[in-house]
Amino acid sequence: MEASGNPLVRRGVIWYLMTTSLVLILMMAFGVIMLLNQGNLINITPEWFYKIMTAHGIGMVGVAALGGTAIMWYFLSKYLKINPVIFLINFTCSIIGVILILIAIFAYDFSDAWTFLYPLPFQSTKAYGVLGALLFLFGVLILGVGYLIMYFYLAGRLIKEYGGLGKSLGWDYIFRGKKGYGPPPAVVATTMVIITNSTAIIAGAIVIIGSILNIINPAITMDPMLAKHLTYAFGHIFCNATIYMAVIAVYEVLAKYTSRPWKSNKAFLIAWNASTLFTLMIYTHHLLMDFAVPTWMLIIGQVFSYANGLPVMVVTAYGALMIVYRSGIKWDFASSLLFLSMFGWVAGAIPAIIDATIVVNHVMHNTKWVPGHFHTYMGMGVIAMILGFMYYFNKTEGSMKHSRIDTFSISLFFTFFVGIVGSFLYAGSISVPRRWAEHMPEWVLSDQVGALSGVFVVLATILMTIRFFACLKNVERPS
Amino acid sequence: MYQTIALFLTVFFEFLLALAFAFVYGESKRKAEYAPIQEKGYKIRTYWFFGLIGVMGIATVLTLDELPYHGSHAEATTTAETKVVDVVGIQYNWEMSEESFKVGDKVEFVVTAKDVTHGFGLYTEDLELVAQTQAMPEYKNSVYFTFTEPGTYKILCLEYCSIGHHVMVKEITVQP
Lengths: 479, 176
Ligand code: HEM
Ligand SMILES: [Cu+2]
Ligand SMILES: [Cu+2]
Prior knowledge:
heterodimer, A: 479 residues, Cytochrome C Oxidase, Chain A, 77% helix, 0% strand, B: 176 residues, alpha+beta, Immunoglobulin-like, 2 domains, five-stranded mixed beta sheet, four-stranded mixed beta sheet, 35% helix, 32% strand, binds protoporphyrin IX containing FE, binds copper (II) ion
């Protein structure tokens, strides 16, 4: 057994994963409620729909980030001495943030979506009072600060250990012709996430603080376009970072299962450097329909969104296929979920890249196409990675064994997640707008298909979560 | 039209992707030396890389010359004068300086908002989205559209603007 050594890390990972899985189920149920309402199968007020939508959006992003962090910390701690207290501080900040956010939404009627596009939160205070908006914004801010503390700490550790973030990104091998392999993939991925996501959170903090000041004193205003740039620099990068943290599980677990090395060779390092750069550049594809943005910026948005597909398609997903090919791998819950998660990631990147084409975006932006593609790489990508890691953790640190029920729940999850994203993408292709509490009769069929699929996905997730919890007791008492 | 292309391409590429994963899964039970697989794999990868660059390059060239940001494209296709229509979004309504049009009208919608950001989405009678731009306070975005079919068109709000977002719909008519 290869335990992670530090019992505090193990405890922390358990807390992260327990929170992640429980909140995930709740948020999925919220998703089904939205679809039932759009599909005219139940009837909730628009106020409730948009509250639930706000909770689902921020909750799911939070879940993906928590799960991704657990993966990153768990594997990184094998290569680098890192203080688990920081891991727990981040957890605490997230929990405080989530509680404030939930109070804001359900006690003080905040419903301005997780993207809180300025000046909407201020406008809404006229109807609902300032408390909801302030609690929500402070909640997101605290959550972000937790991550920032963690990233700065990790940056410090990496600089100390490797002599700089450039070094832990493998610049010696790319630019100075150093031979051999670079730092472990977990270290390279962590460096990428530190750079991109710290930038994102700082951008987010600026626009959140601006919004808070604007609510407290309406005389203080921001430029709405600048605010939108900052909001999407935050939202886009933060969501992407969840994948780049969670993918560490794919590198580690597939390499272990196939007994083949997955090392950072030059192509690997170049790919991760390209991802770092592109991820910072391409958030402008959220502003393609803001014609007032300089055209060159929007063309960059299109061209580099395409380019950003290359590292995953050519290196990471391709590498996963290569390492599995004729490896005699043993397929169990962990390896199959992580293998499938690479499919989910690329499958989501395809419609995303198509939508980043300006002429396509002109008739598909803010239609259901958008949730269609991000549910693919979040649900079948990041969440699949996290669920796979939950099994792996239980197996490695405890004594969990694959059973038939796991094959069943994994098949159920993927089959019906295809149903959800298929119904979203189809709806997008017939111009159904996103974020509409009520749908026109022409649209409801796709919602009903989505709702039915959603019920089975929730079921599958509950099954996997029960298995996770049931086997945890063996982790508590290491054999 | 672009919607159909997007859906078709997505289904097509995802089918190929699924085939690739299924193939590798099928081959995963056999066991072979990794070094020769890697050597061959890296060779194939070079083709794969340049193939992707090629596809993306072609898509870029094909799609970047007709951007919706300027009226120049609309001007080239018709000789009629451009009708300028002011559009203002305000929770939950569209105020427009003109609401009925004729087939053949080439229209420049100059779009802005008073309170929060909204999204101007022009839908045909069969609810197909044919043009959009953001309606942002303090900014004016011009989006061009030439009406070629008569009917009742709709403006739908395409940016979340609080709880009345989905009722922010306005009908405009286009006479033959
Ligand atoms: C059972 C699974 C799920 C169902 C049924 C579901 C359903 C939905 C629905 C109906 C919407 C609103 C669509 C609209 O704009 O009309 C939505 C939005 C969203 N979902 Fe999910 N979802 C699921 C899983 C997930 C997962 C796993 C994630 C991410 C990890 C996620 C993240 C989001 C986000 C970020 C939004 C955007 C919220 C907004 O527009 O403000 N969802 N989902
Ligand atoms: Cu609106
Ligand atoms: Cu709206």
